Amino acid sequence: MNRKLKNSELDRLEVSEFKDALKSPIIIVLDNIRSLNNIGSVFRTSDAFLIKKIYLCGITAQPPHNDIRKTALGSTETVAWEHHESTTKVIEKLKSIGVKICSIEQAENAIMLNEFEPQPNTTYAFVFGNEVKGVQQEVIDISDSVIEIPQFGTKHSLNISVSTGVVIWDVFNKIKNKA
């Protein structure tokens, strides 16, 4: 029989331990995300996988906000983040320090996520776009690559918080297994 664990048994990091912990070489860039609940969910997932930083760009709301707090469950206090008006300026800054930029989008010549192989000793920034319009074309144009999550049903997209979870888990797992 499997007994459900209590929160006290989960051996989670304290906030100070999280801040001092070695982070995964993954950065998240949110490009004009409308939903505060989606933003909070991205923070929570980013906490779970020791994401290096989140960049909130354009209209993407920033903490503190009650609707972000509801889904973030305190992770806005653990995960490093910055807000910038321009997604393209953030991308250019990250590229200038050697970060590889991957827009998550359905596009011509996109690499399927299951075929994406992260390179050792490389930091990646994954850009997730607006719930209706997706990642801005000007951001795709300056990205190093575009990655698509394979889908097999009738719908054309996944919710941004789901997409973020799928990508982070996949890439985190691939990096961890190569280490």
Task: Give an account of the 3D structure.
Strand 2, helix 3 (66-72) and strand 3 (81-84) form a beta-alpha-beta unit. Strands 3-2-1-6-4-7-5 form a seven-stranded parallel beta sheet, sandwiched between helices. It has helices spanning 15-20, 36-48, 66-72, 87-96, 137-142, 160-178; strands spanning 24-31, 51-57, 81-84, 100-104, 111-112, 124-129, 145-148. It is globular and about 45 Å long. With 179 residues, the protein is an alpha/beta fold. It has a single domain, classed as SPOUT methyltransferase, trefoil knot domain (Alpha/beta knot, 3-Layer(aba) Sandwich). Helix 2 (36-48) runs parallel beside helix 3 (66-72) and helix 2 (36-48) packs parallel to helix 6 (160-178). The chain starts with 14 loop residues before the first helix and ends with a helix.
Brief characterization of the structure:
By secondary structure, this protein is an alpha/beta fold.
